[in-house]
Amino acid sequence: MRFQNHPFVVLTLLAILCPVSSHAKEPVERSFTPYIGLKGGMMFVDDSNVKPHAVRVDNAPAIGFTAGVELYGRFALEFSSLGGTADLSGLGVRGDAEIDTTAGYFVLRSGGQVYVLGRLGYIREEVEISIRNGTTTFATKDSDSGLSLGFGGGVRITNHFGLEAAYTQ
After folding, report:
1. 139: closest CA among 95, 82, 104, 106?
2. Are strands 60-71 and 32-43 parallel, antiparallel or unpaired?
3. What are residue 10's phi and psi, to 5 degrees?
4. Could you read off the pLDDT of 12-36 as tens digits, one per residue?
5. What letters, b where the CB count within 10 A reaches 16 and e where it falls short, cover 129-163?
6. Which of 92, 111, 131 has the alpha carbon at shortest distance from 1?
7. Gap between the Cα atoms of 35 and 102, Å rounded
8. Strands 161-168 and 10-15
9. Dihedrals phi, psi of 118, to nearest 5 degrees
10. CA-to-CA distance for 21 and 35, rounded, in angstroms?
């Protein structure tokens, strides 16, 4: 099964754990500012290749975290991990698909208290499917990797806390 990791409106809470943030109104004195945050959203599952087509795959609510370092105010290197579970049903069977993604991104944020962002990176996706039919269980795993793109925006609420909404594929 091929799926696309693109949380449709992923609200990312970035709790900046350093005394200086690049989005603050004051000039940045440090070149490298680390940050961490929580993220949650929805993974849309592309089930067009699922055979037979009578099997339905729901989208997966997801939760994860982000850790990164801002470089010289507008650029950042980010690590992201996100996971969720999609329900499968049809043809008298039920099951689920555990979806986990791990990604590394180069991020560009515009300046200011309200900003836009773009990200480009590499993502690894892993899916573990478990199907139950009465007392019988079938399980399989698959993985894929490739280019990942995203865009969004955010607002800096304080020097240490902000909210972002982003679409990533």
Report:
1. 95
2. antiparallel
3. -90, 115
4. 444 333 333 444 444 545 688 899 9
5. bbbeeeeeeeeeeeeeeeebebebebebeebbebe
6. 131
7. 17
8. antiparallel
9. -135, 145
10. 9
Q: What is the model's pTM?
A: 0.75
- 52, 91 Cβ separation under 8 angstroms: yes
Task: Return the bridge partners of 78, or none.
Answer: 68, 105
45, amino acid identity: V
Q: Is the dihedral of CA 57, 59, 65, 67 positive or negative?
A: positive
> In 10 A of CB 35, how many CB atoms?
20
> What pLDDT digit, counting tens, does each position of 106-157 carry?
999 998 899 999 999 999 999 998 988 878 888 989 999 999 999 999 998 9
Residue whose token pair is 């900003």: 115
In residues, how long is the chain?
A: 169
Greatest CA span in the chain, whole angstroms? Answer: 63
